[in-house]
């Protein structure tokens, strides 16, 4: 670090490749998040890393930034091997990263945040920080008020502060993790203008995204990851269709399954009309969404995560009050009702975050009765005997590998999911709202969960299945809808689904076909 | 403070649910904390010119050697049984009531007011009236921060804490105003009538009805938390508010209820001190029993049996500190020093346990935050 707080895209001393990853492999338990990934970015280049959620894009870049450690592989910065034990090593080597969650001190000003970002020294050199902001504004078009309080800034402005922070630490490679996810369109344009000027100064940029349009608009090269594997690297001018195909792959069709449980005239059990709900940032995450599910039907909701799925499921689970719109179960309005009333209306809920849907520190037996404690009470006490008998029965019926007294948090992911599944299905719900039911489960548990859902379908339940796993959707669903930016942008029978069209719809590109 | 306390339930609040303390069980942890505490406090004791071992003998053992001092231990344990139970109930629900001190004072005001004005009424009318009024007063004092918390999300750690000095101001306002002793002019409320005094339990002892009441409260609290649907809801809300709400539990109502019951029990501590020990309201009625309740609840790992043991232990320490002062000529405040160091050591060990036990957890969290599907192998 030089003494002076400079905002600069420093001259890389070495050859044209600034950051090079070789054979990066990372496992989380049984899951291979990254499988021998090679990736490089040169100076003055924007290299996009494209892939669906869970493809391993973020993981590999977190490894490059020292936030995760690779099980195998090598990282080189300007030709020199670097061991990334922590972001400190990455910063020292000249790698900067703007993660999706900003690490800014919100009550402080922009200048103060920048001054904090410097390593070493006790004195806060605010004047230098202010000069740096002015300098960045002039050179890169990064416009932020140095004395503004970060908490008052828009998300886009905060992102600029994060970029400034990275630049102030002399980074030569800047990794941006889904930078546009939080931006409005005008801010995206500003960001792209900034990125072009940064690469003009010799910086290398890694741009993580799952949006085809953006990737094509900004990148020199595009590398596509799918399920932890590097599928290939192509020029930024590649056709969207081709990129979509690389990203989504060719899912296997035609897993044998009983014929549709729903006839064309089957009763619509779940009806959602014009639903609007706010997301965490206070913006409309579900934005005029309508759909319906019939008895005996599985409706698959496809989409890249962050397009309103979480909020939709939250509303259906009674955990989020919608702004407007209607959700009816057999004609009963449930929008905005608390969870107990939603359950009473016949909705069974299996959200993506199964840990948060249970009480990990309570026993399996207690968790299984928590939704209906009134049924397990004798003369004001908990009916421990009935609770245990109930647990024994469900453990047997759903082949949960646990004892009634085991803490739910101590179980494996598959068994936790089975506990949640058992709690829900034991009540015979008319409607089942289920999100990412097999994410992270091993093959056996996955098959089991899917079989259970199909069994319910056969029994006449209306199932709304939200999943990012296209294979899963194609295997389970009768009908598919694609959710994009809080709206349904396409619908098809599962037999008519083709990956290219799905990929285009999911990426916010209206399919021509 | 809130950050520290906020970490406790994960470390402590699970007694009564399935055990989660895999590394060290809580009794071992407390025992280790006691040993470390003695090692640390031997410094100040040496500075005071006493032999640490003799001092600890006085602190812990001597109080248990005579009938009088054993009963005094129970007397000293009485108020902190109440406040310990009050704090533990609230903490178990995930409601950080730091305001037991103020709630105690409001209970004391109610008891002193009724007790002084109840001339001519029989004890079986006066005593229940004082108990009920004291509990209601404590609950009322607890209501405002609890309401602000569940309705507007205002941090109760701050509001309950800040209401403590306010309660003391109310006490002093009364004592320097309408309740000032008309004869002596001292800031003391009029003595309560004889019918309002808690009867003593044994000859030649100060041990009074309040102790029985405290034991009953702790026993009932244990039963409700461990054995009833209400208790399970409370535990669920404390362990995972989101998960509890998802399961259909009205978490706001549970928090509000826990806060009010907590305040009521703290109010009983005030009643008990007025009716059993002081027989009037003074500004020095509570030497921080409400805060000591936090120590008791923490040492007792938020379980009711633990609260009972911790209250007895600290009662022992309090009696021992004054006897040590007499026998060894060391300041009696050393008792408070030992108590304070003990609390810090305990919390430190809890944090350490979380940190060491947390390595595996961190790794998982690491994995989970990598946006890859990673929950498979838990």
Q: How far apart are the termini of chain B? A: 32 Å
**Helical content of chain B (DSSP H or I, runs of 4+):** over 70%
Structural class of chain A: alpha/beta
Mean of the pLDDT scores of chain B? 85
In words, what does this structure look like?
The complex is a heterodimer of chains A (513) and B (378). By secondary structure, chain A is an alpha/beta fold. Chain A has helices at residues 57-64, 87-93, 110-116, 126-140, 155-168, 185-200, 212-218, 240-248, 309-317, 339-344, 354-357, 364-369, 384-397, 413-425, 443-458, 470-476, 499-506, and strands spanning 17-28, 31-42, 46-50, 72-77, 80-81, 95-98, 173-177, 204-209, 221-226, 229-235, 268-278, 284-294, 298-302, 324-329, 332-333, 347-350, 377-378, 381-382, 431-435, 462-466, 479-484, 487-493. In chain A, a hairpin with a 2-residue loop joins strand 17 (377-378) and strand 18. In chain A, helix 3 (110-116) crosses helix 4 and helix 8 (240-248) packs across helix 17. The radius of gyration of chain A is 25 Å and the shape is globular. Chain A starts with 16 loop residues before the first strand and ends in a 7-residue tail after the last helix. Chain B has helices at residues 2-12, 26-47, 52-61, 67-92, 100-117, 123-152, 156-176, 209-227, 229-239, 241-246, 251-278, 289-299, 304-328, 334-368. In chain B, helix 2 crosses helix 3, helix 5 (100-117) packs antiparallel against helix 6 (123-152) and helix 8 (209-227) runs antiparallel to helix 13 (304-328). Chain B is globular. Mean pLDDT of chain B is 85; it is low at 1-23 and 358-378. Chains A and B meet through helix 1, helix 10, helix 11, strand 18 and helix 14 of A and helix 9 and helix 10 of B.
Summarize the SSE layout with pairings.
The complex is a heterodimer of chains A (513) and B (378).
Chain A: E1 17-28, E2 31-42, E3 46-50, H1 57-64, E4 72-77, E5 80-81, H2 87-93, E6 95-98, H3 110-116, H4 126-140, H5 155-168, E7 173-177, H6 185-200, E8 204-209, H7 212-218, E9 221-226, E10 229-235, H8 240-248, E11 268-278, E12 284-294, E13 298-302, H9 309-317, E14 324-329, E15 332-333, H10 339-344, E16 347-350, H11 354-357, H12 364-369, E17 377-378, E18 381-382, H13 384-397, H14 413-425, E19 431-435, H15 443-458, E20 462-466, H16 470-476, E21 479-484, E22 487-493, H17 499-506
Parallel strand pairs in A: 3-8, 3-9, 6-7, 7-8, 13-20, 13-21, 16-19, 19-20
Antiparallel strand pairs in A: 1-2, 1-4, 4-5, 9-10, 11-12, 11-14, 14-15, 17-18, 21-22
Helix pairs in contact in A: 3-4, 8-17, 14-15
Chain B: H1 2-12, H2 26-47, H3 52-61, H4 67-92, H5 100-117, H6 123-152, H7 156-176, H8 209-227, H9 229-239, H10 241-246, H11 251-278, H12 289-299, H13 304-328, H14 334-368
